[in-house]
Amino acid sequence: MTQIDAGWGAGPSASYETLAATFRPVFRQIAAGAVDREVARRLPYEELALLKVARFGALRVPREQGGFGASVPELFALLIELSAADSNVTQALRAHFGFAEEIVSTRSRAWQANWFERLVAGDTVGNAWSEVGEAKQLTFSTRLDRDGERWRLNGTKYYTTGSLFAEWIDVTATGEDDKPVGVLVRSDAPGVEIFDDWDGFGQIGTASGTTVFTNVAIEPAQLVADEGRVRYGQAFFQLIHLATLAGIGRAAALELAEAVAARTRHYSNGAGARSSEDPQVLQVVGRIRAAAYAAGTIVLKAAEAVQRAFERRIAGDEAGEAAAAAIADIEVAQAQVIVSSLVLDATASVFDALGASATRRGVALDRFWRNARTLSSHNPRIYKDRIIGDFAVNGAPHPAQWRIGKVA
Protein backbone atom coordinates (compact mmCIF):
# COMPACT_ATOMS: atom_id res chain seq x y z
CA MET A 1 0.00 0.00 0.00
CA THR A 2 1.34 3.43 -0.94
CA GLN A 3 1.39 6.40 1.42
CA ILE A 4 -1.37 7.96 -0.68
CA ASP A 5 -3.59 4.89 -0.32
CA ALA A 6 -2.94 4.85 3.42
CA GLY A 7 -4.03 8.47 3.72
CA TRP A 8 -0.64 9.87 4.74
CA GLY A 9 -0.15 11.87 1.55
CA ALA A 10 2.26 11.57 -1.34
CA GLY A 11 5.94 11.07 -0.75
CA PRO A 12 8.41 13.88 -1.43
CA SER A 13 9.24 12.75 -4.98
CA ALA A 14 7.80 10.80 -7.90
CA SER A 15 10.26 7.96 -7.22
CA TYR A 16 9.73 7.83 -3.46
CA GLU A 17 7.41 4.81 -3.47
CA THR A 18 9.99 2.78 -5.39
CA LEU A 19 12.69 3.76 -2.91
CA ALA A 20 10.48 3.10 0.12
CA ALA A 21 9.45 -0.33 -1.21
CA THR A 22 13.05 -1.45 -0.76
CA PHE A 23 12.89 -0.93 3.00
CA ARG A 24 9.25 -1.44 3.98
CA PRO A 25 9.62 -5.22 4.44
CA VAL A 26 12.41 -4.51 6.93
CA PHE A 27 10.30 -1.85 8.64
CA ARG A 28 7.51 -4.40 9.04
CA GLN A 29 9.90 -6.85 10.66
CA ILE A 30 11.10 -4.14 13.03
CA ALA A 31 7.54 -3.13 13.94
CA ALA A 32 6.52 -6.72 14.65
CA GLY A 33 8.79 -6.95 17.68
CA ALA A 34 8.57 -3.38 18.94
CA VAL A 35 6.25 -4.05 21.88
CA ASP A 36 8.15 -7.16 23.02
CA ARG A 37 11.44 -5.26 22.90
CA GLU A 38 9.95 -2.41 24.91
CA VAL A 39 8.52 -4.65 27.61
CA ALA A 40 11.63 -6.81 27.91
CA ARG A 41 14.04 -3.91 27.34
CA ARG A 42 15.76 -5.84 24.62
CA LEU A 43 18.10 -3.73 22.55
CA PRO A 44 17.50 -3.75 18.75
CA TYR A 45 20.73 -5.42 17.65
CA GLU A 46 18.96 -7.72 15.18
CA GLU A 47 16.81 -4.94 13.79
CA LEU A 48 19.76 -2.65 13.16
CA ALA A 49 21.59 -5.56 11.56
CA LEU A 50 18.71 -5.95 9.10
CA LEU A 51 19.00 -2.29 8.16
CA LYS A 52 22.76 -2.64 7.68
CA VAL A 53 22.24 -5.54 5.28
CA ALA A 54 19.69 -3.43 3.39
CA ARG A 55 22.27 -0.58 3.19
CA PHE A 56 19.82 1.79 4.84
CA GLY A 57 22.73 3.79 6.23
CA ALA A 58 23.86 4.56 2.67
CA LEU A 59 20.64 6.33 1.70
CA ARG A 60 22.35 9.63 0.95
CA VAL A 61 25.39 8.12 -0.78
CA PRO A 62 25.18 8.77 -4.55
CA ARG A 63 24.05 5.86 -6.72
CA GLU A 64 27.29 5.86 -8.68
CA GLN A 65 29.11 5.24 -5.38
CA GLY A 66 26.88 2.31 -4.43
CA GLY A 67 24.25 4.15 -2.38
CA PHE A 68 20.65 5.13 -3.07
CA GLY A 69 21.13 8.82 -3.87
CA ALA A 70 18.16 9.85 -1.72
CA SER A 71 17.37 13.54 -1.37
CA VAL A 72 17.07 15.12 2.07
CA PRO A 73 13.23 15.02 1.98
CA GLU A 74 13.31 11.38 0.85
CA LEU A 75 15.61 10.52 3.75
CA PHE A 76 13.31 12.18 6.27
CA ALA A 77 10.21 10.56 4.81
CA LEU A 78 11.87 7.18 5.32
CA LEU A 79 12.91 8.14 8.87
CA ILE A 80 9.26 8.88 9.63
CA GLU A 81 8.32 5.41 8.37
CA LEU A 82 11.12 3.78 10.36
CA SER A 83 10.08 5.70 13.48
CA ALA A 84 6.53 4.44 13.08
CA ALA A 85 8.03 0.94 13.24
CA ASP A 86 10.24 1.68 16.27
CA SER A 87 11.45 5.13 17.25
CA ASN A 88 14.34 3.64 19.23
CA VAL A 89 15.93 2.43 16.00
CA THR A 90 15.77 5.85 14.37
CA GLN A 91 17.23 7.51 17.43
CA ALA A 92 20.06 4.96 17.47
CA LEU A 93 20.89 6.00 13.89
CA ARG A 94 20.69 9.77 14.41
CA ALA A 95 24.43 10.29 14.75
CA HIS A 96 25.03 8.03 11.78
CA PHE A 97 22.88 10.03 9.42
CA GLY A 98 24.36 13.29 10.68
CA PHE A 99 27.85 11.96 9.97
CA ALA A 100 26.79 10.53 6.61
CA GLU A 101 25.43 13.95 5.65
CA GLU A 102 28.84 15.47 6.33
CA ILE A 103 30.46 12.83 4.15
CA VAL A 104 28.05 13.45 1.27
CA SER A 105 28.71 17.20 1.38
CA THR A 106 32.43 17.32 2.27
CA ARG A 107 34.92 18.95 -0.07
CA SER A 108 37.61 16.44 0.88
CA ARG A 109 37.39 13.88 -1.92
CA ALA A 110 39.83 11.44 -0.31
CA TRP A 111 37.91 11.52 2.99
CA GLN A 112 34.64 11.12 1.10
CA ALA A 113 35.79 8.16 -1.00
CA ASN A 114 37.07 6.35 2.10
CA TRP A 115 33.81 6.75 3.96
CA PHE A 116 31.51 6.11 1.02
CA GLU A 117 33.05 2.65 0.83
CA ARG A 118 32.43 2.04 4.54
CA LEU A 119 28.86 3.35 4.47
CA VAL A 120 27.96 1.19 1.48
CA ALA A 121 29.50 -1.82 3.25
CA GLY A 122 27.04 -1.28 6.10
CA ASP A 123 29.23 0.44 8.69
CA THR A 124 27.35 2.78 11.01
CA VAL A 125 28.53 5.59 13.24
CA GLY A 126 27.49 6.40 16.80
CA ASN A 127 28.28 9.50 18.81
CA ALA A 128 30.30 10.52 21.84
CA TRP A 129 29.75 14.25 22.12
CA SER A 130 28.11 15.16 25.43
CA GLU A 131 29.69 15.23 28.86
CA VAL A 132 28.05 15.49 32.27
CA GLY A 133 29.11 16.42 35.79
CA GLU A 134 31.62 19.26 35.79
CA ALA A 135 31.61 19.60 32.01
CA LYS A 136 31.97 23.16 30.70
CA GLN A 137 29.97 24.63 27.84
CA LEU A 138 32.88 25.60 25.62
CA THR A 139 35.43 22.86 26.28
CA PHE A 140 35.63 19.07 26.58
CA SER A 141 37.31 17.21 29.41
CA THR A 142 37.90 14.38 26.93
CA ARG A 143 41.34 15.00 25.47
CA LEU A 144 43.28 14.03 22.38
CA ASP A 145 47.02 14.27 23.07
CA ARG A 146 49.91 13.57 20.73
CA ASP A 147 51.90 10.39 21.21
CA GLY A 148 54.72 10.37 18.67
CA GLU A 149 53.26 9.92 15.18
CA ARG A 150 49.76 9.39 16.51
CA TRP A 151 47.50 10.46 19.36
CA ARG A 152 45.90 9.06 22.52
CA LEU A 153 42.26 9.66 23.44
CA ASN A 154 41.13 9.76 27.07
CA GLY A 155 37.80 10.76 28.58
CA THR A 156 34.21 9.84 29.41
CA LYS A 157 31.12 10.69 27.38
CA TYR A 158 27.40 10.31 28.10
CA TYR A 159 24.29 10.21 25.86
CA THR A 160 26.39 8.18 23.40
CA THR A 161 23.33 7.11 21.44
CA GLY A 162 23.87 4.40 18.86
CA SER A 163 27.50 3.71 19.74
CA LEU A 164 26.78 0.29 21.23
CA PHE A 165 25.41 -0.85 17.85
CA ALA A 166 27.90 0.96 15.59
CA GLU A 167 31.27 0.11 14.10
CA TRP A 168 32.55 3.66 14.58
CA ILE A 169 32.08 6.45 17.11
CA ASP A 170 32.23 10.15 16.23
CA VAL A 171 34.00 11.72 19.21
CA THR A 172 34.51 15.37 20.13
CA ALA A 173 37.51 16.20 22.29
CA THR A 174 39.93 18.95 23.23
CA GLY A 175 43.08 18.80 21.11
CA GLU A 176 46.67 19.68 21.88
CA ASP A 177 46.02 23.34 21.00
CA ASP A 178 43.07 23.34 23.46
CA LYS A 179 40.61 23.67 20.58
CA PRO A 180 37.76 21.25 19.82
CA VAL A 181 38.66 18.39 17.49
CA GLY A 182 36.67 15.54 15.97
CA VAL A 183 37.91 11.97 15.71
CA LEU A 184 36.48 8.69 14.43
CA VAL A 185 37.13 5.74 16.74
CA ARG A 186 36.47 2.06 16.17
CA SER A 187 33.91 0.92 18.72
CA ASP A 188 35.87 -2.29 19.28
CA ALA A 189 39.26 -0.57 19.64
CA PRO A 190 41.34 -1.39 22.75
CA GLY A 191 40.48 1.06 25.51
CA VAL A 192 36.88 1.70 24.38
CA GLU A 193 34.12 0.67 26.82
CA ILE A 194 30.43 1.24 26.04
CA PHE A 195 27.78 0.83 28.72
CA ASP A 196 24.00 0.52 28.40
CA ASP A 197 23.33 2.61 31.52
CA TRP A 198 20.75 5.02 30.11
CA ASP A 199 18.05 5.26 32.80
CA GLY A 200 15.57 7.65 31.21
CA PHE A 201 11.90 6.68 31.11
CA GLY A 202 11.76 7.03 27.32
CA GLN A 203 13.75 5.81 24.30
CA ILE A 204 15.00 2.97 26.48
CA GLY A 205 16.09 0.88 23.52
CA THR A 206 18.70 3.33 22.27
CA ALA A 207 21.54 2.43 24.67
CA SER A 208 22.12 6.16 25.17
CA GLY A 209 24.53 5.64 28.01
CA THR A 210 28.21 6.07 28.85
CA THR A 211 31.31 5.49 26.73
CA VAL A 212 34.77 5.56 28.28
CA PHE A 213 37.99 6.06 26.30
CA THR A 214 41.17 4.99 28.04
CA ASN A 215 44.44 5.66 26.24
CA VAL A 216 42.87 4.79 22.87
CA ALA A 217 45.39 4.93 20.02
CA ILE A 218 44.35 7.30 17.22
CA GLU A 219 45.94 7.39 13.78
CA PRO A 220 46.10 10.59 11.67
CA ALA A 221 43.52 9.20 9.21
CA GLN A 222 40.94 9.07 12.02
CA LEU A 223 40.89 12.84 12.53
CA VAL A 224 37.78 14.45 11.06
CA ALA A 225 38.59 16.45 7.92
CA ASP A 226 38.50 20.23 8.39
CA GLU A 227 35.84 20.52 5.69
CA GLY A 228 33.77 17.76 7.26
CA ARG A 229 31.24 19.83 9.22
CA VAL A 230 28.30 21.47 7.46
CA ARG A 231 26.58 24.77 8.21
CA TYR A 232 23.13 23.22 8.17
CA GLY A 233 24.09 20.50 10.65
CA GLN A 234 22.08 22.03 13.49
CA ALA A 235 18.87 22.00 11.44
CA PHE A 236 19.60 18.50 10.12
CA PHE A 237 20.17 16.91 13.53
CA GLN A 238 17.12 18.58 15.09
CA LEU A 239 14.94 17.55 12.17
CA ILE A 240 15.81 13.91 12.82
CA HIS A 241 14.17 14.31 16.24
CA LEU A 242 11.11 15.80 14.57
CA ALA A 243 10.90 13.00 12.01
CA THR A 244 11.10 10.54 14.90
CA LEU A 245 8.28 12.37 16.67
CA ALA A 246 6.16 12.32 13.51
CA GLY A 247 6.71 8.56 13.24
CA ILE A 248 5.71 8.10 16.87
CA GLY A 249 2.52 9.99 16.18
CA ARG A 250 1.79 7.84 13.14
CA ALA A 251 2.40 4.62 15.10
CA ALA A 252 0.16 5.80 17.94
CA ALA A 253 -2.62 6.61 15.48
CA LEU A 254 -2.34 3.22 13.78
CA GLU A 255 -2.21 1.17 16.97
CA LEU A 256 -5.11 3.11 18.46
CA ALA A 257 -7.28 2.53 15.39
CA GLU A 258 -6.54 -1.21 15.52
CA ALA A 259 -7.33 -1.36 19.24
CA VAL A 260 -10.63 0.47 18.83
CA ALA A 261 -11.66 -1.73 15.88
CA ALA A 262 -10.97 -4.88 17.90
CA ARG A 263 -12.54 -3.72 21.16
CA THR A 264 -15.79 -5.52 22.14
CA ARG A 265 -16.24 -4.23 25.69
CA HIS A 266 -17.87 -0.80 25.93
CA TYR A 267 -19.41 1.51 28.50
CA SER A 268 -23.13 1.61 29.26
CA ASN A 269 -23.03 5.40 28.95
CA GLY A 270 -21.22 5.31 25.61
CA ALA A 271 -22.62 6.85 22.45
CA GLY A 272 -22.65 3.60 20.48
CA ALA A 273 -22.98 -0.14 20.88
CA ARG A 274 -19.26 -0.67 20.30
CA SER A 275 -16.22 1.58 20.49
CA SER A 276 -15.92 1.34 16.71
CA GLU A 277 -19.42 2.82 16.38
CA ASP A 278 -19.11 5.46 19.10
CA PRO A 279 -18.79 8.93 17.51
CA GLN A 280 -16.96 10.33 20.54
CA VAL A 281 -14.36 7.58 20.42
CA LEU A 282 -14.01 8.00 16.65
CA GLN A 283 -13.47 11.71 17.22
CA VAL A 284 -10.48 10.97 19.45
CA VAL A 285 -9.05 8.55 16.90
CA GLY A 286 -9.53 11.08 14.11
CA ARG A 287 -7.90 13.91 16.03
CA ILE A 288 -4.82 11.81 16.82
CA ARG A 289 -4.47 10.68 13.22
CA ALA A 290 -4.85 14.24 11.97
CA ALA A 291 -2.08 15.35 14.36
CA ALA A 292 0.20 12.63 13.02
CA TYR A 293 -0.58 13.64 9.43
CA ALA A 294 0.16 17.30 10.14
CA ALA A 295 3.39 16.47 11.96
CA GLY A 296 4.69 14.44 9.03
CA THR A 297 3.74 17.13 6.54
CA ILE A 298 5.53 19.82 8.55
CA VAL A 299 8.68 17.72 8.84
CA LEU A 300 8.87 17.18 5.09
CA LYS A 301 8.35 20.89 4.43
CA ALA A 302 11.25 21.72 6.75
CA ALA A 303 13.34 19.05 5.01
CA GLU A 304 13.01 21.07 1.81
CA ALA A 305 14.81 23.94 3.54
CA VAL A 306 17.67 21.63 4.52
CA GLN A 307 17.82 20.32 0.94
CA ARG A 308 18.27 23.89 -0.32
CA ALA A 309 21.21 24.42 2.05
CA PHE A 310 22.77 21.15 0.86
CA GLU A 311 22.41 22.18 -2.78
CA ARG A 312 24.12 25.52 -2.12
CA ARG A 313 27.02 23.70 -0.43
CA ILE A 314 27.44 21.25 -3.29
CA ALA A 315 27.43 24.18 -5.71
CA GLY A 316 30.32 25.76 -3.78
CA ASP A 317 28.24 28.83 -2.98
CA GLU A 318 29.45 29.63 0.55
CA ALA A 319 27.33 32.76 0.95
CA GLY A 320 24.29 30.94 -0.41
CA GLU A 321 24.91 27.99 1.88
CA ALA A 322 25.17 30.25 4.92
CA ALA A 323 21.95 32.06 4.03
CA ALA A 324 20.06 28.83 3.29
CA ALA A 325 21.35 27.20 6.50
CA ALA A 326 20.19 30.21 8.54
CA ILE A 327 16.69 29.91 7.07
CA ALA A 328 16.71 26.14 7.59
CA ASP A 329 17.44 26.73 11.28
CA ILE A 330 14.40 28.98 11.55
CA GLU A 331 12.11 26.65 9.60
CA VAL A 332 13.13 23.67 11.74
CA ALA A 333 12.64 25.71 14.92
CA GLN A 334 9.14 26.64 13.74
CA ALA A 335 8.49 22.99 13.00
CA GLN A 336 9.78 21.92 16.42
CA VAL A 337 7.34 24.12 18.30
CA ILE A 338 4.31 22.67 16.52
CA VAL A 339 5.36 19.07 15.89
CA SER A 340 6.36 18.44 19.50
CA SER A 341 3.08 19.89 20.76
CA LEU A 342 1.01 17.92 18.27
CA VAL A 343 2.64 14.60 19.09
CA LEU A 344 2.79 15.08 22.85
CA ASP A 345 -0.92 15.90 22.94
CA ALA A 346 -1.79 13.05 20.59
CA THR A 347 0.16 10.40 22.49
CA ALA A 348 -1.31 11.51 25.81
CA SER A 349 -4.83 11.36 24.34
CA VAL A 350 -4.59 7.77 23.11
CA PHE A 351 -6.05 6.47 26.36
CA ASP A 352 -9.18 8.62 26.05
CA ALA A 353 -10.46 6.26 23.36
CA LEU A 354 -9.80 3.09 25.33
CA GLY A 355 -10.51 1.56 28.72
CA ALA A 356 -8.25 1.09 31.71
CA SER A 357 -6.99 -2.19 30.27
CA ALA A 358 -5.06 -0.12 27.72
CA THR A 359 -2.71 0.96 30.50
CA ARG A 360 -1.40 -2.58 31.01
CA ARG A 361 2.36 -2.74 30.69
CA GLY A 362 2.20 -5.59 28.17
CA VAL A 363 0.31 -3.37 25.70
CA ALA A 364 3.03 -0.70 25.98
CA LEU A 365 0.86 2.14 24.67
CA ASP A 366 2.58 4.40 27.17
CA ARG A 367 5.80 4.12 25.17
CA PHE A 368 4.53 6.63 22.64
CA TRP A 369 4.17 9.47 25.15
CA ARG A 370 7.33 8.51 27.06
CA ASN A 371 9.37 8.46 23.86
CA ALA A 372 7.83 11.69 22.59
CA ARG A 373 8.40 13.44 25.90
CA THR A 374 12.04 12.32 25.96
CA LEU A 375 12.71 13.45 22.39
CA SER A 376 10.98 16.78 22.98
CA SER A 377 13.38 17.49 25.83
CA HIS A 378 16.36 17.66 23.45
CA ASN A 379 17.38 21.19 22.45
CA PRO A 380 14.51 22.49 24.62
CA ARG A 381 11.52 23.84 22.75
CA ILE A 382 10.89 26.54 25.40
CA TYR A 383 13.60 28.65 23.75
CA LYS A 384 12.29 28.26 20.22
CA ASP A 385 9.31 30.62 20.46
CA ARG A 386 11.64 33.44 21.54
CA ILE A 387 14.17 32.64 18.81
CA ILE A 388 11.44 32.58 16.14
CA GLY A 389 9.94 35.82 17.45
CA ASP A 390 13.33 37.54 17.44
CA PHE A 391 13.77 36.52 13.80
CA ALA A 392 10.29 37.74 12.86
CA VAL A 393 10.57 41.09 14.64
CA ASN A 394 14.28 41.90 14.49
CA GLY A 395 15.65 39.67 11.73
CA ALA A 396 17.92 37.96 14.26
CA PRO A 397 19.39 34.63 13.11
CA HIS A 398 18.97 31.42 15.03
CA PRO A 399 21.85 31.06 17.54
CA ALA A 400 24.74 28.85 16.48
CA GLN A 401 25.01 25.18 17.44
CA TRP A 402 24.07 24.95 21.09
CA ARG A 403 26.17 23.41 23.81
CA ILE A 404 25.29 22.38 27.35
CA GLY A 405 27.39 22.49 30.51
CA LYS A 406 28.55 24.86 33.21
CA VAL A 407 29.24 28.44 32.13
CA ALA A 408 32.56 28.68 33.94
Report the average pLDDT across residues: 93
C-alpha-based Rg, rounded: 22 Å
CATH superfamily heading of the largest domain: Butyryl-CoA Dehydrogenase, subunit A, domain 3
Query: What fraction of the residues are assigned to beta strands by DSSP?
Result: 5-15%
Write down the CATH topology of the largest domain: Butyryl-CoA Dehydrogenase, subunit A, domain 3
H/E element sequence: HHHHHHHHEEEEEEEHHHHH
> What number of structural domains do the residues give?
3
Class of secondary structure makeup: alpha+beta
Name of the level-1 CATH class of the largest domain: Mainly Alpha
Q: What is the correct CATH architecture of the largest domain?
A: Up-down Bundle
Number of helices: 13
Span between termini:
55 Å
Strand line-up across the major sheet: 2-3-7-6
Beta-strand segment tally: 7
Q: Helix content range of the residues, please?
A: 40-55%
Contiguous runs where pLDDT drops below 50 for at least 5 residues: none
Biggest pleated-sheet summary: 4 strands, antiparallel
| Silhouette | globular
GO molecular function, one term: acyl-CoA dehydrogenase activity
Keywords: Flavoprotein, Oxidoreductase
Domain Acyl-CoA dehydrogenase C-terminal: 241-378
Domain Acyl-CoA oxidase/dehydrogenase middle: 141-216
